[in-house]
Write a structure and sequence with these properties.
It is a single chain. The chain has 14 helices and twelve strands. It has 444 residues and is of the alpha/beta class. It folds into three domains: 118 residues, Gyrase A, domain 2, CATH 3.30.1360; 134 residues, Four Helix Bundle (Hemerythrin (Met), subunit A) (Up-down Bundle), CATH 1.20.120; 153 residues, P-loop containing nucleotide triphosphate hydrolases (Rossmann fold). The chain starts with 5 loop residues before the first strand and ends in a 7-residue tail after the last helix.
Length: 444
């Protein structure tokens, strides 16, 4: 069901632009076209050029393109009108003020257009989450991943799991109905174990992809680490193409974690500069020790590590990393006495720029090898992963109970189906809606 109010908002970017789009959704959308253009709505989904006037004083607002999209065949599922006006701030401000003066219309809240699309069955919860991610996508991998969800493709793949479960459940129900007729019950259960195993394998594959998808959505953490004065902050500035960190010859200048967001050949990356790690834990003041503790904690959760040393800044031993790592020697212009060996993957000089292109290529290849997926994943958020994980657990329990009472197996299959419905957003999602839709901008 649609909202009782008719809502409106600027749906294009704020500020000066060639064109601004003001969207109206609700039962009075057609009346808004009539009021400000003096004519009935045009043919559905056909743009027409009309003059818009403020009926309060008869003053011309602008010459605009008008689109009319009657429900339910619109984004929100309601009657929708769009006014495409010139994008100057004054023009937009005047049109919004005129709409505000029309009885029954009000300014939309953040995400309210999308909320109405969800309430009217035009989008699943996975579609909504994908759209939110698409609006925030900054890199190519984020765009592709979000588009898979926003377009409904991810929900379709999740819906296929639910359809398979419904088929399994129907066979179990048939076995219950004909439990006294052993031949019929046995025939209903025939091949069900294989169907369950195939479905479990498909869910397992999606869960394996989920961690990669979450990292792409949030950004991959690449940690710069090494002893003090090795040149980590200089490398951060060089890779960011701007001065982010203070650079000094004094060891221990970096006290806290500095972060730079980057696009690494389509993958979102958060490059983290950390405090220098000393072999002698007693050296350094209290603040530097806190910075070193944070650096060590960050190394435990890093998606990749760049360990940097220099001829005048070396550790007794390079630590072991759980994640992929590149071990580099900086200040190669001073490194004649320190040949490249198994200790380092490559030599660079941040000062002269030598080896930096090779470093970025090696880093890009390492990250893409681990985090590139053949196709966008189904599961991209923690909420989705938990719902699928629960469905997979119930299905696994149903598979294990298949040789026991069929009623137990059927109940476990029902629970798995309900978990998948929560994934798609068909049941038990009311507590999530306000937080999800509030993250949208006004006008979407």
């Amino acid at each position: 069901m649609g909202g009782e109010d008719t809502i409106f908002a600027l749906s294009s970017g704020a500020g000066m632009a060639g064109v601004a789009v003001v969207r109206v959704s609700g039962p009075l959308a057609a009346a808004a076209i009539n009021r400000f253009s003096g004519k009935e709505p045009p043919a559905p989904r056909r743009a027409v050029l009309r003059l818009l006037r403020d009926t309060a004083d008869g003053e011309l607002i602008d010459e605009a393109l008008i689109l009319w999209m009657p429900g339910p065949g619109s984004f929100t599922g309601e009657d929708v009108a769009e006014f495409h006006v010139h994008g100057g701030r004054a023009t937009v401000r005047r049109l919004l003020a005129a709409l505000s003066g029309m009885e029954g219309l009000r300014m939309a809240k953040a995400g309210e257009f999308t909320r109405r699309a969800f309430d009217n069955g035009r989008m699943t919860l996975m579609d909504v989450e994908g759209l939110a991610d698409l609006l925030r996508a900054e890199t190519e991998s984020q765009r592709r991943q979000a588009l898979e969800a926003a377009s409904g493709a991810a929900a379709l793949r999740a819906g296929k799991w639910r359809d398979d479960l419904i088929f399994i459940l129907s066979r179990l129900e048939a076995a219950i109905d004909f439990i006294e007729e052993e031949d019929v019950a046995a025939q209903a259960l025939e091949g069900l174990a294989g169907r369950m195993d195939d479905l479990t394998a498909s869910m397992d594959a999606a869960l394996r992809e989920a961690r990669v998808a979450e990292r792409i959505r949030e950004g991959l953490r690449i940690v710069l680490a090494g002893p003090p004065n090795a040149g980590k902050s200089s490398l951060l500035n060089a890779m960011a193409r701007r001065d982010v960190a203070i650079v000094s010859q004094t060891a221990g200048t970096t006290r806290d974690v500095l972060e730079v967001h980057m696009d690494l050949d389509g993958l979102p990356v958060i490059l983290c500069d950390t405090a220098g790690l000393r072999d002698e834990t007693g050296d350094g003041d209290e603040i530097e020790k806190i910075g070193q503790a944070r650096a060590r904690d960050l190394l435990k959760t890093a998606d990749a590590v760049i360990w940097m040393e220099a001829p005048d800044a070396r550790s007794n031993e390079i630590p072991h990393f759980e994640s992929d790592a590149l071990r580099i020697l900086n200040k190669s212009d001073l490194a004649d006495s320190v040949p490249l060996s198994s200790r380092y993957d490559l030599c660079v000089s941040v000062k002269t720029g030598e080896g930096l292109k090779d470093l970025e290529e090696r880093l890009t290849g390492m990250v893409h090898d681990r985090y590139d997926l053949v196709r966008p994943p189904v599961i991209t958020r923690e909420r989705q992963r938990q719902a699928l994980d629960q469905a997979r657990e119930r299905l696994s329990e149903a598979r294990a109970a298949l040789d026991g009472p069929v009623e137990v197996t059927a109940e476990l299959a029902r629970q798995a189906a309900r978990d998948l419905e929560r994934l798609i957003g068909k049941v038990d999602v009311e507590d999530l809606l306000d937080s999800i839709f509030s993250s949208f901008c006004i006008g979407k």
